[in-house]
Please model this.
Amino acid sequence: MAFSTQITAAARPTRFKRATVTVLAAAGLAGAALTFAPSPAQAAEPAAAPKAAPSVSTKKATDGNNVDAWINQALSIMKAKGIPGSYEGLHRNIMRESSGNPNAVNGYDVNAVNGTPSKGLLQVIQPTFDAYHVAGTSQSLTDPVANITAAANYAADRYGSIDNVNSAY
Model:
């Protein structure tokens, strides 16, 4: 960077800071533009209709229709079947995967592209649910307790426990 006037020692930090901020701001905007710009394939696709925000139950734990009740019911079954896992591990993964929506469906990942979308509280695909289904729970993939117990059973087999899962699995 060339300046037309001599910069004194006292003025140097101010001009340097101003120039640095300008360069960083320009680089940041370019980076943001690259991050948010669609790929050519995405740009050619028609825009999808916006999806509604997932709903989360606000009912009390005593009515059996919320995340806390579903987790506690699943933990009871898991304990009886010898499937490891804790409330904290289940809750952390449920909140990351579905925000507590038992009807959540991922229509965008590789499983969905292949025709088997991840569903439910812990975003399980049907073949995994079928393979790790826990006897005595519903056969429905989106049943909250069946989804939790099957996912915990899978995680126990693959990772030792749902408590060891800290990202999509």
